Amino acid sequence: MSAHATVVFADLFGSTSVFEALGNAKATQAVTQVTTWIAKIIEAHGGRVVKMLGDGVLALFGNNPAAISAVVELQRKHQKRMPHIAPANRMPIRIGVASGDVEIVAGDCYGDAVNVASRLSDLAGASQIWTNGAALDGVSEAQDVRFRVMGPISIRGRAEPCTVYQVDWEDDATSALLTMQSDMVPLFDPAQVDTLGGQIELVWMKDRMSFKSFELPIHIGRLHRAEFVVDDPRVSRTHARIDWRNGSMMLVDLSSYGCWVRFSGGGSDLLLRREECVLHGEGQIALGSSFADLSTPIVSFSVS
User: Helix (H, G, I), strand (E, B), or coil: what is residue 180?
Assistant: First the structure.
């Protein structure tokens, strides 16, 4: 059966470290408590839980406003719960939301919107909500909720990039860009990017370099003309590019064998093959082979 729906993927960030710290039995109990609580919030907003995914929840909503209201409440209430949870059990939530046509078969759901929501959940950072543009149709900014455009991001399995937005849900959140119900309009002069921009620091072995937003894009690669050189045979001559796009640091893979990205604080490693992701906080980038290969060249990054 075909239907138009808003798909929500809510995933617990850092569950792997919880399993390492607590062991399987206690960690499973901690994860189940949070995912069951997530399911109750979703159902209270009129959503339908399709299935539990270990440390995540897949749900469908009949309209965008209900979905956005649910995920904002999830983040706000979870933020208030966190100080009362033992440090070893704390797992922030990261959420992907996408609206589109889905196929419902035997109670499960499939389709482009499902794939996009899943991928956005993977790419989002801890306590973040990422959506596609369609998921914000008919949704108004209110009650300290703002929608910030992240720009077009390549999604695995899609020929065309997906324009992605971050929902700033904190009560005192501020955004550089606000979503209108028509075109996106920057609220600042592009000439002011120096004062509104960020900085990224890259470290490989003894090499340490910092780049400000106005100095981007820069390239990581084996060639000496790359702005950040990683001289290793597994690294492509021009392996990756770092862009400054709509207030975010974007890592774009240009290589033959890919990049693996690991963010500090937990979460699954991201494999990028001719794809891109937003770099946030601190983490590592493995070039040419995965982190499982202990000899792979690894670049540490820190975004501020």
Answer: coil
